[in-house]
Design goal:
The protein is of the alpha/beta class. The protein is globular, with a radius of gyration of 15 Å. The chain contains seven helices and five strands, in the order E-H-E-H-H-E-H-E-H-H-E-H.
């Protein structure tokens, strides 16, 4: 049975790498945020707006416990998922956790190129986003670093490098 759980800060490439890994292995991929949106019939941004971060994190925790029970699956978690409740210990007990690690500068670059709405970055200038990422990453690193495996993704900027990252994960996990 395969259960790979990918964690890391927003913009690290969790969904991109997770999808590519799932495709190579021929097993389903679940992005936890997408799963929440599907089950709640609302976007993450709407849930944040209506219930605040605390309300969202409670929903996220419950949905995490659903999706982490699936077998033969690749799961991508939201950037904050490991940092609340007992989520990181639970994830480590449920499968092979992989932290996609990148510097604040690389994450900032990825987030500025991205098209998705990031509730935690709304109404921030590029400079404020850089400061926010640096500060949040420092707070989240203690959680992320407890993952069973870590993969440096600072150079994840092309399809070739995505495939190299997937190959490295497969080697780490003997998949």
């Amino acid at each position: 049975m395969v259960r790979v759980i990918i964690i890391g800060y927003m913009g690290a490439g969790k969904t991109t790498v997770g999808k590519a890994l799932a495709k190579q292995l021929g097993i389903p991929f679940y992005d936890l945020d997408w799963y929440i949106e599907s089950r709640m019939r609302k976007t993450v941004a709407q849930i944040f707006s209506e219930r605040g971060e605390e309300g969202f994190r409670k929903i996220e925790h419950a949905m995490l416990h659903e999706v982490a029970e699936f077998e033969n699956v690749i799961i991508s978690c939201g950037g904050g998922t490991p940092c609340f409740f007992d989520n990181m210990q639970y994830l480590n007990s449920m499968g092979d956790t992989i932290y996609l690690k990148a510097t604040p500068e690389v994450l900032h670059k990825h987030l500025m190129m991205g098209k998705g709405v990031r509730p935690l970055l709304l109404n921030k200038t590029p400079e404020e986003v850089q400061t926010f990422i640096t500060e949040q990453l420092a707070l989240r690193e203690p959680y992320y670093s407890t993952a069973l495996h870590t993969l440096d993704v600072n150079l994840l900027d092309s399809y070739d490098k995505i495939n190299i990252s997937v190959r490295k994960i497969r080697e780490m996990l003997n998949l």
